[in-house]
Task: structure prediction
Amino acid sequence: MKSTSIKFATILTAALIISVAATCQQSASTGNPSSSSNAVLYYPSSQVTAGFEKGGALFDGKDRNYTVMTAHREKSGPATAELHERDTDVFYIVDGSATFVTGGKMLEGKNTGANEVRGSGIDGGDTRQLNKGDVIIIPAGVPHWFKEVKSTFNYFVVKVRPQS
Result:
């Protein structure tokens, strides 16, 4: 009886997910959003995969307070440390593994653009291993740094900026 209930619940859940996904897909844009800030945006897997090959913006944030990016890194040693004075970064790790440092003191920090600081590394801070499936949220004003990328590393970045 218990396994029948579980199977029924699984089938019901799958049907619900499929119907919601179909409804969303029918009403979604194909990556060419209208000028309305409440337009649904849709990016097919082929576009997302191509994005990971080169990295860059899937959605540039026009008329909204966020940007969605695909990011790609290859195996490497320390990268440039970053600090965004206004943007919060949300990372979702799709593939790979990296040593990532947040907080601490940025070394040799230089302004590289409006509200952007880059440096050679971080002294102190919290070190974490980022792996497939992990999510990390880096608030605005917190330095962060890929200390080491252990293999091909793909991740989504959502940059959120406070609304003016």
Q: What stands out?
A: DSSP finds two helices and 13 strands in the chain. The longest strand covers residues 66-73. Confidence is low (pLDDT under 50) at residues 1-31. The chain has two domains: 1-30, 41-160.
